[in-house]
């Protein structure tokens, strides 16, 4: 069996490069500016929903196969699967109702990550479903986008 000898200095250099890449600083963003951008994304999604435009509503979500949506005991992976879930659950304006968000709390976890807690409510002709949500936002090349959404419905 042949043993490959690698100079210790090369191993050190490779380790330094490997670990320094993960520690590279993100461009600084003031927390208030990040919060405003996240709220702008959320406001645009509500506006799109209330126009009946599910595809435009989905612009708040990262268009990726790793995007995750959990609700009602089900988990959906991928932007396309989440879109299809919304289109099936809300096939027309009447079932979509009028969406509002409230009690929004935004906590920045890193320069490119934030968690958002809040309440949602739909006002429809015959009912008003409502509940809670937890959103994980990431700062991407396209701006702040939802990468994970856990939404629950209240029973009362």
- Across the major sheet, the strand order is 2-1-6-5-4-3
In the CATH scheme, what's the topology name? Answer: Nuclear Transport Factor 2, Chain: A
Strand content: 25-35%
Name of the level-1 CATH class:
Alpha Beta
- What's the architecture, going by CATH? Roll
Number of strands: 6
Helix content: 25-40%
Q: What are the secondary-structure elements, in order, as H or E?
A: HHHEEHHEEEE
Furnish the topology, listing elements before pairings.
Blueprint: H1 8-22, H2 31-51, H3 54-57, E1 68-71, E2 74-77, H4 79-89, H5 93-96, E3 98-110, E4 113-123, E5 130-140, E6 143-153
Parallel strand pairs: 1-6
Antiparallel strand pairs: 1-2, 3-4, 4-5, 5-6
Keywords:
alpha+beta; 5 helices; six-stranded mixed beta sheet; Nuclear Transport Factor 2, Chain: A; 156 residues; single chain; 6 strands
Could you please describe the fold and organization of this structure?
There is one protein chain. With 156 residues, this protein is an alpha+beta fold. β3 (98-110) and β4 form a beta hairpin. Helices cover 35% and strands 35% of the residues. The chain has five helices and six strands, in the order αααββααββββ. The chain has one domain (29-153): Nuclear Transport Factor 2, Chain: A. It has a six-stranded mixed beta sheet, with helices on one face.
């Amino acid at each position: 069996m042949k043993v490959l000898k690698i100079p210790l200095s090369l191993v050190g250099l490779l380790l330094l490069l490997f670990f320094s890449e993960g520690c590279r600083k993100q461009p600084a963003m003031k927390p208030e500016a990040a919060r405003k951008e996240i709220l702008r994304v959320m406001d645009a999604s509500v506006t799109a929903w209330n126009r009946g435009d599910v595809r435009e509503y989905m612009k708040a979500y990262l268009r990726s196969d790793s995007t995750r949506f959990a609700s009602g005991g089900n988990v959906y992976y991928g932007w396309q699967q989440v879109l299809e879930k919304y289109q099936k659950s809300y096939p027309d304006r009447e079932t979509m109702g009028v969406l509002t968000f409230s009690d929004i709390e935004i906590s920045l976890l890193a320069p490119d990550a934030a968690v958002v807690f809040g309440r949602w409510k739909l006002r429809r002709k015959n009912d008003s479903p409502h509940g809670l949500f937890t959103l994980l936002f990431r700062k991407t090349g396209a701006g702040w986008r939802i990468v994970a959404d856990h939404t629950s419905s209240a029973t009362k």
